[in-house]
Amino acid sequence: MTDTAISVRGLNHFFGAGEARKQALFDVNIEVGRGSLTILMGPSGSGKTTLLTLMGCLREVHAGSVRLLDRELFASDEGTRIDMRRRLGFIFQAHNLHDSLTARQNVMMGLQVHGRGDPARHVQAADHLLGLVGLGERLTYLPGNLSGGQKQRVAIARALVSNPDIIFADEPTAALDKVSGMAAVRLFRDLGRTRGTTTVMVTHDPRILDLADRVVTLEDGRIVEDRRASLPRNITPGPA
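Structure (tokenized):
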């Protein structure tokens, strides 16, 4: 095992075919260290989400190399990508909660879909994470009875409950107020310090930039700036 969680080399990506074929990423190179918090920024259409989904095994890598947790994704089969996704946590701007399930049940699904742990402890784990995101008094609420920000916090808890190696987050604070957004990002940062959890986050939220180890800016499918924190953080890796 290396200290690098994600290694991207010479990554190009295209959408469409024939005359409609359009290049979305151009020779992208980036390495993300284990336990770090990396933010991807840039205008709409710059390639941030495309890069995130390629690193997160949600799209196939067709040109270039993406190594995720020491596994090569270029030309990998669907079975490999499914296995890798089980080690990841995903948070999207659209919370994608099940309307018929309570907050607790939605978070428990983060464990049940992977068959992780003792089912008898799923409730305890879900309640713990919901407490961490400030929803300890909303455990049995259905999504229809939660605000947009509360739904997003449920989605954050669901992504974290299985203790993923890497968290991929696309605008996770967009629906949150300043206090809740800062608290969520501090949680990601603290998981990096205590467990070695790596977070890669797409955001337009300038309020959270100072919490990141690194801010990578993309424009027109290219990395145009890569700014690292001035002081490195001590990372205590979690269990392999």
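The radius of gyration is 18 Å. Confidence is low (pLDDT under 50) at residues 231-240.
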